[in-house]
TrEMBL record:
One Pfam family it belongs to: Abhydrolase_1
Compartment(s) where it occurs, according to its Swiss-Prot or TrEMBL record: Cytoplasm
Protein name from the UniProt record: Proline iminopeptidase
GO molecular function, one term: aminopeptidase activity
Phylogenetic placement of the source organism: Bacteria, Pseudomonadati, Pseudomonadota, Alphaproteobacteria, Hyphomicrobiales
Length: 305
């Protein structure tokens, strides 16, 4: 547990060869936390990999904490971790929200990044969220979109994203719990090529039970434009010059579609875009995990000393 200020303590672990190439893995969400299998993306003989749960996520404390939890805080936390281990540079790997944080960190501290491997590129913009939930959702899952809107009172349906985030952040459990469950279930369907179900269980939305912290931290970030200026990551993509990279993209990713990765690759000449057919958003879709592992090894071979 590493104290980073403002009452936050981060869960941090290292894996692999202490003499190997330094690397860091950035989980998604924001708010999801690292998983055991994320360690296996890195060859333990070749890499010394750091995994950590971001503020409020996973095993970090306080769990679900949103105070002093912004993108600049997370970037500063990465620098704290890097200095703690004495790394001059490290290979930065992230998927979905992890790709957002990876890009923001690399653009803030390009001299500290030996290479980048991104999966399911997300630039943290309002437009991407509107595309996922207000265009792709009704286009591909019209009945689920009706369920998604139906959770909201009629007057709030004209601006459903703002309504969801406002409700999820409401202190009253009767308000935030159904909205958080509906958000998680809908996001889950959009993340899968073949979801097990494609409707909301309206009865389950009001059931008592533990809730993940992810929708609460996501609502906190999304309602604040991920604490970035509009189009910040593309506008500052020139700062990635000289950093080798691989972008892994599922062809049928409805949350983070290929157009986003394509726009980034057009501005970052050292990046190789690798599109995986018949795959969507998830790390465990066919071909995605293997492509990320291959990307990590390939970028390591090209990485800056």
């Amino acid at each position: 547990m590493l104290a980073v200020g403002a009452g936050h303590e981060l869960y941090v672990e290292t894996n692999g060869n202490p003499g190997g190439l330094p690397a860091v893995y950035l989980h998604g969400g924001p708010g999801s936390g690292c998983q055991v299998d994320h360690r296996r993306l890195f060859d333990p003989q070749r890499f010394y990999a750091v995994l950590f749960d971001q503020r409020g996520a996973g095993r970090s404390r306080p769990k679900g904490g949103r105070d002093a939890n912004t993108l600049p805080h997370l970037i500063a936390d990465m620098e704290t971790i890097r200095r703690h281990y004495g790394f001059e540079r490290w290979l930065v790997v992230g998927g979905s929200w992890g790709s957002t944080l990876a890009l923001a960190y690399a653009e803030a501290h390009p001299e500290r990044v030996s290479g980048l491997v991104l999966r399911a590129t997300f630039l943290g913009t309002r437009a991407e969220l509107e595309t996922a939930f207000l265009i792709n959702l009704p286009q591909f899952y019209p009945a689920l979109y009706e369920d998604f809107l139906g959770v909201l009172p009629e007057p709030e349906r004209a601006a459903p994203l703002d309504a969801y985030w406002r409700r999820i952040l409401d202190p009253d459990p009767a308000v935030h719990a159904p909205a958080a469950k509906a958000w998680v279930e809908t996001e889950g369907v959009l993340s899968m090529v073949t979801p097990r179900r494609n409707r909301l269980d309206r009865a389950n939305l009001t059931n008592q039970g533990a809730l993940p912290v992810t929708p609460y931290i996501e609502a906190h970030y999304f309602a604040n434009d991920c604490f970035m200026r509009p189009n910040q990551l593309l506008d500052e993509a020139g700062r990635l010059a000289g950093i080798p990279g691989v972008i892994v993209q599922g062809r049928y990713d409805l949350l983070c579609p290929p157009a986003t990765a394509h726009r980034l690759a057009a501005l970052w000449s050292e990046a190789e875009l690798r599109t995986i057919e018949a795959a969507g958003h998830l790390l465990y879709d066919p071909g995605i995990r293997d492509a990320v592992i291959a990307g990590i090894n390939d970028v390591a071979a090209r990485s800056r000393a």
